[in-house]
Amino acid sequence: MNKEDRVVELLIKAGYHISFAESCTAGLAVGRLVNVPDASKVLDASFITYADEAKIRYLGVDPETIKAHGVVSEEVVHEMALGVCKETGAEVGVGISGIAGPTGGVPGKPVGTVCFGIAVCGEVFTWREEFGDLGRNVVRDVSVNFCYDRLVELLEERAPQ
Predict the structure, then answer these.
(1) 43 with 16: CB under 8 angstroms?
(2) Nearest CA to 100 among 75, 57, 129, 70?
(3) Are 114 and 94 in contact (CB under 8 A)?
């Protein structure tokens, strides 16, 4: 069983729904979920919020959070994860924002830096990873893999079985 199948299985068992708010992965994470036949039982809606303005408008990210920490930050993905839950009514929300490359890196946030936020019933967990300048599509793919690894861990620990 792959990670996506396991996430869907865990969500179904818990009676949870999931929604994604993706920036640098631009729909890859939710796309992997819908490859699972029973995804329709756990997914209603997700957002691709590539621009800062979209994160503010559709997810309720505070512009001051972006100003203070940058759009690629644990603080922003925290708000993205909570915002997508609020907008969709999902128990599980995922926020992903990063610098896939080949440009966009800045001091302290090189190309390959990706931040993740996962909300489970209002409790939010965040991570910042530096995958390196692996190439745009590789960074996006390893980001989605990382996300599903964390989803499996969190759902196995926190979701009712």
Answers:
(1) no
(2) 129
(3) no
